[in-house]
Amino acid sequence: MNNNSWETSLPISLQKNTECFVEIKNFVEHWARLVCWSWTEILAFKEEAEKKQEQTLKEFFIKTLQNQGQNTYAYQSYADGNALEIAKIESLNLKNLILGNNSEIEDEDLQGVEVTLSNVLQKLYKNEKFELCSDNFKKIDFEFRTIVDYTGKIIEISENKYIAYLAYPPRPTLSQYTITEDQLNYWVINRSSDGNYLPPSIYIPIAGT
Questions:
Q1: Which UniProt keywords apply (predicted)?
Q2: Which end of the chain is less packed: N or C, by CB atoms within 10 Å?
Q3: Which of 28, 22, 21, 40 is nearest to 198 (CA)?
């Protein structure tokens, strides 16, 4: 097959960096699981205090993604300056959530919540050493934005600085033609051992391609 007839949106600078590609591929998988976690009633923690924190974290995660996506769209479509300021704040909140910097988020809804997204995945993966963002990933200068789509993308805006558009569409109607509740729940709590990072349905969003 002639690859010249196909194109990828991944910046050349990241395509040529094998380590970066591995980090991005891993993040795609973890993001898909976090989105499904937010779509379900599943909580990773069993202890009551941590369960309560996880539920608060989940609600804040959803709110941040929805507000960021909505206000980004409002600015891009209508040049709404107020929406731009909100979008910037929510973008920073999203970055801090991903990096596990809950204490850096100045929002009373998250005050006192020490459980991070990494902690949630640690429990779901049964791997206490897991980190959502490796040291190498943290070195990549990302700005995170939300799009209401099933596939995200990464674009380069300057040398070694990127915008990561994270997919967060509405949850599809559950059915055998989209994704079933069993498939959704299974994906959240079961990692593949064969290295496949793509979810079992196109209706489960992936962070970027």
A1: Plasmid
A2: N
A3: 28
Contact residues for 102 (Cβ-Cβ < 8 A; gap 6+): 57, 96, 110, 113, 114, 116
* Listed residue (37, 58, 39) closest to 110, CA to CA: 58
Give the pLDDT of residue 198.
79
Q: pTM for the complete prediction?
A: 0.88
* DSSP letter for each residue of 115-183: --HHHHHHHHHT-TT--SS-HHHHHSEEEEEEESSSB-EEEEEETTEEEEEEE-PPPPPPSTTS--HHH
Tokens of 52: 């309560």
pLDDT mean by block of 10 residues, the chain; 209 residues: 64 74 82 94 96 98 96 94 96 96 96 97 92 83 87 83 90 92 87 72 78
